[in-house]
């Protein structure tokens, strides 16, 4: 199978940046398949990049190499990293964009990108994606092993991502991101939600939930958008198995005037 490199960035598609990275990759490893996950991350939004990467990487073939560049510290003393996690390898700045990936599966090894032979001869202070990260990924695709890229790194930067809190029959979460459709995606995953209901509820009764976001009551938690009327707000579990606040045929974010950081409260009533 041809090697696969998947790209994620906040570069957008208006400028030459993504194309230049692909050109560098193909110059080193012409037979690679390059896939764009997204280049629509909000500029400098490292958490947004971390969440989008985590939502995509597990659906790629084993052996895929991911280049994740959301890098407000480009050109600074922050390190570049290469990591092996499960069946995948990742190239990224050491700024927390790999936090969720590392949380889901402990990395087997992490190295700093210090070996100059696997970078372009001149590294721009403003475009390390082209000159350092893209070449490193291409050389991995060409067959070099991760340790060849640099020295081992025992510690790396991670983001402080809000965790779900549970107490006194109440589950408290946070909106982490807003998707293209205006859905408010929270940090409450299905397993946590189901465990909360099972632990809190009397096994002989069926628990009823009360859901609010940013203090606004949300009518129901449903299985699909078709279960509610047009314009009605609901909670449902989306494709990443996290609770989302959504509107049928509308934007929950715009309608409710809410975004990242809004508090989400789930109460259980028997």
Describe the protein's architecture and organization.
It is a single chain. The protein has 270 residues and is α+β, with helices and mostly antiparallel strands. The chain folds into two domains: 4-149, Rossmann fold (3-Layer(aba) Sandwich), CATH 3.40.50; 165-269, Bacterial fluorinating enzyme like (Elongation Factor Tu (Ef-tu), domain 3, Beta Barrel), CATH 2.40.30.90. Helices cover 22% and strands 30% of the residues. It has helices at 17-28, 46-56, 99-104, 128-142, 190-200, 252-256, and strands at residues 4-9, 33-38, 65-69, 80-85, 88-93, 109-112, 165-167, 170-178, 184-189, 208-213, 216-218, 220-221, 233-237, 242-247, 263-269. Strands 7, 8, 9, 10, 11, 12, 13, 14 and 15 form a nine-stranded mixed β-sheet that branches. Strand 8 (170-178) and strand 9 form a beta hairpin. Helix 1 (17-28) packs parallel to helix 4. The longest helix has 15 residues, at 128-142. The protein is elongated and about 65 Å long. Mean pLDDT is 94; it is low at 199-206.
Which structural class best describes the helix and strand composition? alpha+beta
Query: What is the CATH domain class of the largest domain?
Result: Alpha Beta
Averaging pLDDT over every residue, what do you get?
Answer: 94
Give the overall silhouette: elongated
Q: What is the alpha-carbon Rg in Å?
A: 21 Å
β content, as a range? 25-35%
Tally the beta strands: 15
Number of domains: 2
Through-space gap between termini: 54 Å
Instruction: Write the element-wise H/E pattern from the N-terminal end onward.
Output: EHEHEEEHEHEEEHEEEEEHE
**CATH superfamily annotation of the largest domain:** S-adenosyl-l-methionine hydroxide adenosyltransferase, N-terminal
Low-confidence stretches: 199-206
Main sheet properties: 9 strands, mixed
CATH architecture of the largest domain: 3-Layer(aba) Sandwich
Helix content: 10-25%
The CATH topology of the largest domain corresponds to: Rossmann fold
Total count of helical runs of at least 4 residues: 6
């Amino acid at each position: 199978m041809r090697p696969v490199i998947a790209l994620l960035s906040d570069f957008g598609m208006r400028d030459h940046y993504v194309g230049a990275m692909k050109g560098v990759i193909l110059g080193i490893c012409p037979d690679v398949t390059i896939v764009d996950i997204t280049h629509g991350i909000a500029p400098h939004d490292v958490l947004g990049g971390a969440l989008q990467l985590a939502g995509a990487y597990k659906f790629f073939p084993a052996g895929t190499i991911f280049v994740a560049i959301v890098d407000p510290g480009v050109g600074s003393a922050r390190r570049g990293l290469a990591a092996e996690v499960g069946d995948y390898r990742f190239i990224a700045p050491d700024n927390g964009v790999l936090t969720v990936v590392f949380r889901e599966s402990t990395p087997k090894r992490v190295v700093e990108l210090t070996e100059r032979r696997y970078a372009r001869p001149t590294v721009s202070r403003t475009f390390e994606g082209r000159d350092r990260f893209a070449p490193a990924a291409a050389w991995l695709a060409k067959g070099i092993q991760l340790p060849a890229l640099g020295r081992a790194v025992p510690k790396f930067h991670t983001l402080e991502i809000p965790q779900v809190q549970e107490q006194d029959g109440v589950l408290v979460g946070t909106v982490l991101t807003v998707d293209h459709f205006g859905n408010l995606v929270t940090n409450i995953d299905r397993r946590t939600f189901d465990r909360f209901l099972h632990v809190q509820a009397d096994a002989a009764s069926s628990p009823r939930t009360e859901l609010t976001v940013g203090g606004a009551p949300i009518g129901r938690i449903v299985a699909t958008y078709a279960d509610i009327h047009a314009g009605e707000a609901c909670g449902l579990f989306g494709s990443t198995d996290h609770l989302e606040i959504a509107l049928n045929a509308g934007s929950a974010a715009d309608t409710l005037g809410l975004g990242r950081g809004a508090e989400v409260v789930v109460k259980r009533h028997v």
